Amino acid sequence: MKQHSLKKEFRQFAKQQDALFGEVIQGKKRKGSATGASNEQGQSTQPTNAATSRFDEHLALVTEEWVNAQSLEGMKQMISGCQKCPLGATRNKLVFGTGNPNADIVVIGEAPGADEDASGEPFVGAAGQLLTKVLAAINFSRDDVYIANIIKSRPPGNRTPERSEVEQCIPYLYKQLDLIKPKFILAVGLTAALSLLNRKATMKELRGSVHDYFGITMVVTYHPAALLRNPQWK
Ligand code: URA
To answer: Exposed e or buried b for every residue in 195-229, given b needs 16+ CB within 10 A?
Structure first.
């Protein structure tokens, strides 16, 4: 799909949210479009080429083998035994991410739940089924997009990930985004959105805007699990 029509689809998704949830999502002037621009974290969002990455600033500090991975599959194999945080000891399977390795849209959730921990795939439980429907509503299948989480291992009892766990795990996501090079990010849930934006805000504040994440257009929406708990939000 061409970028302009995809952008239209994404805007349409924002409009659809408006119809569903009663709030207008408006495009903000993108900070990344001008020379010397920075994103909402104050980091450079200069266009990248083969030699540079939007995430260089973070990935340059990493000395582990996976940082040089040339493919998602290669990277997945390199990190499947990760024990960098205590969640490595309690998980069953590391949930790396699935979908189109060249996707224009990456959907980012919080962390695997029990079903994902058992299967090794993100968003396969009840929340995942609703996510599939949300994607279908904007004419995307799960195979069109790439789906990943901030945290790759299930926090016991599905608790919210600790700050330290996010800090340990998020470089993996930077590398995944670096390999995929999406045009859009759909952050589902407040935890995912705040972990990405690295600041405090409410869902109401975030849902009203189109955000800039390292030069990638980002929209924030409710987590499907929250929609399941609050069907009146649909
Ligand atoms: N919730 C998430 O945030 N991610 C999953 O993969 C499943 C449920």
So the answer is: bbbeeebebeebbbbbbbbbbbbbbbbbbbbebbe
CB-defined site of ligand 1, < 6 Å? 109-113, 116, 122-123, 127-128, 149, 189, 225
Cross-strand partners of 38: 44
Chain centroid offset of residue 76 CA: 17
- Paired sense of beta strands 146-149 and 98-99, if any: antiparallel
Q: What is the pTM of this model?
A: 0.84
16-43: burial string, b at 16+ Cβ within 10 Å, e else: ebeeebeeebeeeeeebeeeeebbbeeb
pLDDT digit string, tens, across residues 27-76 = 333 333 333 345 665 554 544 444 578 999 899 999 999 999 999 999 99
